[in-house]
Structure formats: structure tokens, C-alpha cells
Design goal:
Layout (H helix, E strand, L loop, with lengths): L23 E5 L2 E10 L5 E7 L4 E5 L5 E14 L5 E4 L3 E4 L5 E15 L13
Antiparallel strand pairs: 1-2, 2-3, 3-8, 4-8, 5-6, 5-7, 5-8
InterPro entries: Cupin_2, RmlC-like_jellyroll, RmlC_Cupin_sf
Protein name: Cupin type-2 domain-containing protein
Pfam families: Cupin_2
Length: about 130
């Protein structure tokens, strides 16, 4: 067995490192966050990394399609309407069903990977200087 060259993955594999991604300021549920797309398929599924500082909060929002959130680093407090909050820590994930209002808050600096069938979020509008 040979070791694959890290700069030349095998056919059919898409390999990404967070350090090599193009990070952009995106508007996620009204909060500006640094986001980096990882993958988008022609079937409408996409994955992106997002960085959140401790205290960053995604105000109450809902999704029209499913969303899966993997906490890669840090910890996220998630509150769904009518339910007790829970904390998802590094190595854990949560799945949000469509149309369920919820809030998400980074309780420590966090890196999350979101996979969804929703369209990409808009870029943060820059004010003219």
C-alpha cells in the first residue's frame, strides 16, 4: 500500500484543509461570521465551515430545509422554542429539522461545519468608506 500525496488526492475525493480555504464574511441569521465553503453539489447539498467567537449568537431563526451542524472545535448552546437548551461540544453534532425556531450561541471560540440543502447565505454588505 502506498501513501497518497497530500496535494494530489485520489480521483473521486475532495480534500480540504481549513487553513487553505477562502474565508468570507457572511450573514448568518443576521450575524456576521467568517465562513468558508467546502463543497456544493449539483443536487443542492452544500457544506461550509464557520468560525464563531465566544458569545457570538445566531438570533432566533428557522430553516426551510434540514441543517446538520458538526462542532469541530469549541462548544455551542442550542435552544429550540419550548425546549431546554443543550450544549453540543467538539466532536458532537446536531440536526435541525425544517421550520423549528431556534437560537445558537458559541459558549467558547468555535469552528462548526454546516451541511444543508439550503442556498448559501449572503455576503455581509460592506459600507462605503
Amino acid at each position: 500500500m502506498t501513501t497518497q500525496d497530500e496535494n494530489n488526492p485520489p480521483p473521486g475525493i475532495i480534500w480540504r484543509r481549513t487553513a487553505d480555504l477562502a474565508w468570507n464574511d457572511l450573514n448568518i441569521a443576521g450575524t456576521p461570521l467568517a465562513g468558508a465553503p467546502v463543497y456544493a453539489s449539483d443536487l443542492g447539498v452544500r457544506s461550509s465551515f464557520y468560525r464563531m467567537a465566544a458569545g457570538d449568537m445566531l438570533k432566533k431563526h428557522r430553516h426551510m430545509k434540514w441543517v446538520q451542524v458538526m462542532v469541530v472545535e469549541g462548544a455551542m448552546e442550542v435552544t429550540q422554542d419550548g425546549e431546554e437548551p443543550f450544549v453540543a461540544r467538539a466532536g458532537e453534532l446536531y440536526f435541525v429539522q425544517p421550520r423549528h425556531p431556534h437560537t445558537e450561541k458559541a459558549i467558547e471560540p468555535s469552528l462548526i461545519l454546516i451541511t444543508t440543502a439550503e442556498p448559501p447565505p449572503p455576503a455581509v454588505k460592506k459600507r462605503p468608506s
